[in-house]
Amino acid sequence: MSRNWIFLRLALQNLGRRKTRTLLLIGAVAVATGAIFAVTTLLWGSQTSMTVSFSRLGADLLVVPQKTLVNITSALLTAAPTDLSLDSSLASQIASIPGVSQVAPQLLLRTDQSGYHRPGTMDHSVELIAFDPGHDFTVRPWLVEQLARPFQAGDVIVGGGHPEQLNQEIYLYGQKLIVYGRLERTGVGTHEQALFVNFETLQHLAEASQSGNYPLNFSPGQYSALLVKLKPGATSQQVQFAILAQAPQVKVITADVILTTVRPGLTALVQGIWLLMGAILLGLALMISVIFSAIVSERQQELGLLAAIGTKPKQLIGLVLLEATLMTGGGGLIGTGLGLGLIRLSQRTLIYDLNSLGVSFLWPGAWAMAELGLSCILGAALLGGLGALVPAWKISCHDPSELFG
After folding, report:
1. Distance CA 181, CA 198 (A)
2. Exposed, middle or buried, 27 (CB in 10 Å: 0-12/13-18/19+)?
3. What pLDDT is attached to residue 124?
4. Residue 66 needs a FRET pair 20 to 30 A away by CA distance; which of 206, 240, 279, 378 works?
5. How far apart are CA 371 and CA 377, in angstroms?
């Protein structure tokens, strides 16, 4: 234990000999670590925000009956109410087409005199959208709040324009529904004002509506639209032609080209940033190796004296590596604090501007930030050790008499 303390004290004394050089190296490591910490945090937030945003973009293709009128803006999220329908067998046919990732069926109905009311109204008509939670990728990504349990029959998700709260009871055709979740405002009227249920719930409502004057026109196995998500690399034109070849009686609406081209572009940008950060780390490791080569060469007589009094080669290597890890680890600690300052600055500038434009940015949680900071500190220390390993190994291979020459 005392020997370890002696080596630690000796390493600290050696670092204090050339204070300017030590401080400059610590500063270089701090700047690099701070930049990496800040950029990694921003990349994490960008990738998470990008994933959430892309999951909310809706479908790449929308399949509807031939005579259906479609608003292209809302088509990326949902179809429009219509009396026309598609057979459920078409969903499995489209899902088997190469290049298709997911197929989400939806059925849209407008309810009249269902018993649903809002403040100031006695019987408010509402658009009812049935979807399959197991295949959905256009509804649930918009949830901003939900109950802490799976979505089930008897639950309803309300659009952003509804006043209902979570776990509140609402009634349609005398059937009690529980508000399971609320969607974020999408700017699309269908989503803003609609109620979303699964097909089992819709069937119960349809059965209960038969006793009224305005029964729901619901036939099991019939859909208003099929929303299609493509696999990475698949082109909408190829899948569109394949769908029309199998079902010429339908109409296929494609998303804007920018939606299908921006994903690989942003992914390539993120990969380029990671490569740049890797280059920074490699350059930093080479710089540390060069600096410690000079330090070891400058102190070869001192190291030779230590070897002459019985210090083992492994201990000499450990001494040099300890100095390097202390120096770069301290730089990593300072750099993490610097990175937090850069993140704080970006919150007041770039992220503020994005939020003002309605572009949300998701930050890592406190524990994730702490883990990332600790990883940066340990990574900087490890990088210092790796950079000094070759010079330390070379000096340990010399005979003590050679080091005095």
Report:
1. 13
2. middle
3. 66
4. 206
5. 10
- Look at the block and give the residue holding tokens 């930049």: 35
DSSP tally for the chain: helices H, then strands E: 13, 12
Share of the chain above pLDDT 90, in %: 12
Three-state DSSP state, 318? helix
Give the whole-angstrom CA distance, residue 32 versus residue 38: 10
List, as one string, the DSSP characters of 283-296. HHHHHHHHHHHHHH
Contact 396, 389 (CB under 8 A): no
User: Are the beta carbons of 216 and 83 closer than 8 angstroms?
Assistant: no
Tell me the chain's radius of gyration from C-alpha atoms. 32
Q: What confidence score (pLDDT) does residue 1 get?
A: 47
Sequence letter at residue 104: A
3-class secondary-structure state, position 108: strand
Contact between residue 31 and residue 335 where contact means Cβ atoms under 8 Å apart: yes
Q: Is residue 262 within 8 Å of residue 250, measured between CB atoms?
A: no
What is the pTM for the complete model shown?
A: 0.54
Question: Which pLDDT score, from 0 to 100, does residue 331 have?
Answer: 87
The tokens 């730089």 sit on which residue? 331
**Cα separations in angstroms, 373 against 26, 76, 163, 297:** 17, 39, 42, 34
To which H or E segment does residue 343 belong? helix 313-348
Question: Which three-class secondary structure state does DSSP give residue 5?
Answer: helix
* Averaged pLDDT for residues 18-28: 80
Contact 196, 170 (CB under 8 A): no
Residue where the block lists tokens 């220390």: 381
Cα angle for residues 396, 398, 404 (degrees, 5° grid): 110
For 332, half-sphere exposure in the C-beta direction (CA atoms, 13 angstrom radius) is 22
**pLDDT over 90 (residue 197):** yes
